Amino acid sequence: MEARARLALWLLFAVAALQRVWNAWTVRPLNGFDAPGHMGYVLTIVREHRLPHPLDGWSTFHPPLYYLLASGIWGLLEPLGPHAVLFGIRMLGALLGLALALVTLQLVRRLGASRDVAFVTTALALFVPCIQLSATMEGNESFAAGVAALGLPSLLALQADPRNVRAALVTGVFAGLAAISKFTGLALVAAAIVPFVRVDLDRAMARGLLALGIAFAVIALPVYGRNVATVGSPFPMTRTREPMHSAENSQVIRPRQLLDYVTVHLDCFRRPSIFQVAGRPGTFNNRNTAMTSVPGLMYASFWYDPTAHRIPIYDHHDGIRSGPLMIALGVVPTLLMLAGFAVAAARTVRRRLRAAEAPLVVMALAGLAMLALHTWTAQSTASVKAQYLLQLVPAAGVFFAQGTMLLRGRLRMAALALALVAATAAAVVFTEGVVFHSAAAGVVSWLKWGRQLPGSHIDEALQWFLPMIPRRS
Q: What is residue 416's three-state secondary structure?
């Protein structure tokens, strides 16, 4: 039985790896969120051998780790042409996406899930739409989530034994790497403190905390110190500057209200797109007012493609059944995950942060708090996307497994079967060319924005990939 379970998992990862390679090679270029801006950042490093000023480009406020690695890939593969460069850079996210699922599997098994629950949890961690879409985008989302995930096994070891200096060092290293990959990686930092929040903290535990802090500081402080020195803040943002400010404002349906965080409209499920309005084809002029609901848009972002990055905007209209289908199939896994989170959170409070999964609960709460703050200060639909919660995938996997383990007998088997169907359907819908061909980048808009940001190398990135971009954009 054990050998069969291992074989099934190997096959699952093999299918996921092949699908990611296929998508990385065939999905149209500059398909990710702000992809030309990300590639301009990379090209600045390649061409000028320096990090750009945090406010000099579109995406240059992001921490630099992903862009440094991507620039190395670009420089190495540039003689082979744009397709090879694109594929190589996309594989950064694809490989770290596989690591994300591997860590999820390890944590789920460590915390007591059965083999069948672990298999289905892993399938979800590989194929939930927002996860697999991010894995082949040109951007730092999947990469940063994978880096944060790699710090979780050592963190749970540290939770079990806060005197484990080796685990503290490893956790500190990955917390630092996560923090210099994307600001959302700081959720891991919040979780890393949990093992040491205790009244019986002794010298041996304090040594572990010191080791963790030093490892984190050595990696993260140069980046955040540079931000403070250059712009006066550890968290620079470009969205208040032009042309980013105007571009973001064009995506505001209306000013966000507190009620938007607690209401969900039926059209979030019937039409899971910000561009789809009843009876009208999808266009950038349409705005689905149901998507003013933050949980509704976030849910659609997990289980479909509401921002038309992979499913072209002209396919966002009534009669496209894959959207409502994926939204419906996601309901059971999501409810089980929420049930598991409630149980884990209650156990964490009851045991005063000593529960085995307490760091995952705190990490989830920190990630959700950062998302709430971001969506309140950035009013556009672009700020409400599941990619901001990708670093919580292993925690969500653990909560899904714990929610599923609350069920018994046939009810559990039915829930697992529905979740597996959801993962399979997502794999089919978002394998390039099977149901849809990917959307093309908005070249005209990005060329205009690139001209407004001289020295950002956005123009050059567009020209580099232009031969691969279809005329329709």
A: helix
Which residues, 6+ apart, have CB-to-CB distance to 18 below 8 Å? none
Tokens of 264: 């969900």
Residue range 95-144, pLDDT digits in tens: 999 999 999 999 999 999 999 999 999 999 999 999 999 999 999 999 99
What own/partner pairs with CB < 8 Å and gap ≥ 24 does 423-426 have?
Answer: 423/120, 423/123, 423/124, 423/126, 423/127, 423/128, 424/123, 424/127, 425/325, 425/326, 425/329, 426/127, 426/128, 426/129, 426/132, 426/303, 426/326, 426/329
Residue 59's closest CA among 287, 236, 312? 236
- By the 8 A CB rule, do 415 and 336 touch? yes
Longest dimension (CA), the chain: 67
Q: What six digits make up the tokens of 40?
A: 């301009």
Dump pLDDT digits (tens) for 300-354: 999 999 998 888 888 888 878 899 999 999 999 999 999 999 999 999 999 999 9
* Matching residue, tokens 């069969």: 4
Nearest to 472 by CA among 429, 432, 434, 437: 437
